[in-house]
Amino acid sequence: MKIYYNPIKNILAMVKKNLAKKTIIRFVLISTLLFSNLCLCAQREEMQTLFGRREDVRIGGYGTFEIKASQLDGGINGLLLGWRGGVILNHKYVLGLAGYGLLPTRKITPPSDIAEIGRDYHLTGGYGGILLEYINSPRKLLHFAANTLIGIAGITYTDLINKDYDTHKSYPKSISFVVEPCVEMELNVSTVFRMSLGVSYRYSPNFKLRYNKQDNKNALNGLSINLGFKFGEFLGYKIKPKEK
């Protein structure tokens, strides 16, 4: 049996083999280039964050002396002094602390279901906690802000039992959580001083102050009218990125 050599067939087979190799090489090269381009684009595209790029973030801070005319047991008869302050991010967002204490106030006549008629008392104590705040359009002369205090409050009664000798009897203290949202208007007096006037509501419902065999759970709940004097670096300083 004779075997005939066909050179044309061999040439065609070699050409097909070379074309297949070139096609595979081109496919690999094109895929590599596309993948590299996608990686470069992903590196160039920055993640969007609440505070923007690091080099755009500004950090400042302030402290406020504040006076509150407040409801105690349902009447506008309380006065509190306190402070609040914190770190300002990008002129608008504040994370800080706040605390307030009751000043000696005029006597309170308790409701008949809490105490005997005519048996007056004082409330003493205070509250404090974490402060979260948002300042809207802080560069404008007059702008508004909103904040919330979340923390703990502690109060007690002080009952006048002997007015002639000015002796007092203090009842056991009671502790409760407290939440106080507030809205206020701010005035830019200067770049480092602002004044604020606002309204807040203090909610602290878990007190257990017994008076004449009754629990007064809502002694500290009520509205407040607040006047504040704020001092600080409101514009803030830029965070410098690390040099590579």
Throw out a few tags for this protein.
53% strand; elongated; 16% helix; 1 helix; alpha+beta; eight-stranded antiparallel β-barrel; Porin; 244 residues; two-stranded antiparallel sheet
Please write out the topology:
Layout: H1 7-44, E1 58-72, E2 75-89, E3 93-102, E4 121-135, E5 142-162, E6 167-170, E7 174-190, E8 193-202, E9 209-211, E10 214-216, E11 222-238
Antiparallel strand pairs: 1-2, 1-11, 2-3, 3-4, 4-5, 5-6, 5-7, 7-8, 8-11, 9-10
Describe the structure.
- This protein is an alpha+beta fold and 244 residues long.
- The chain folds into two domains: 8-46; 58-237, Beta Barrel (Porin), CATH 2.40.160.20.
- Helices cover 16% and strands 53% of the residues.
- Strands 1-2-3-4-5-7-8-11 form an eight-stranded antiparallel β-barrel.
- The model has no long low-confidence stretch (mean pLDDT 77).
Q: Could you give a quick summary of the protein structure above?
A:
With 244 residues, the protein is of the alpha+beta class.
The oligomeric status of these chains comes to: single chain
Q: What is the CATH level 1 assignment of the largest domain?
A: Mainly Beta
Provide the domain count. 2
What share of residues is helical? 10-25%
Biggest sheet details? 8 strands, antiparallel, barrel
Tell me the number of helical segments per DSSP (H or I, 4 or more residues long). 1
Radius of gyration: 35 Å
Mean pLDDT: 77
Order of helices and strands: HEEEEEEEEEEE
SS strand fraction: over 45%
What is the name of the CATH architecture of the largest domain? Beta Barrel
Question: Spans of 5+ residues with little confidence (pLDDT < 50)?
Answer: none
Class computed from helices, strands and strand pairing? alpha+beta
Strand order of the largest sheet: 1-2-3-4-5-7-8-11
Distance between the amino and carboxyl termini? 78 Å
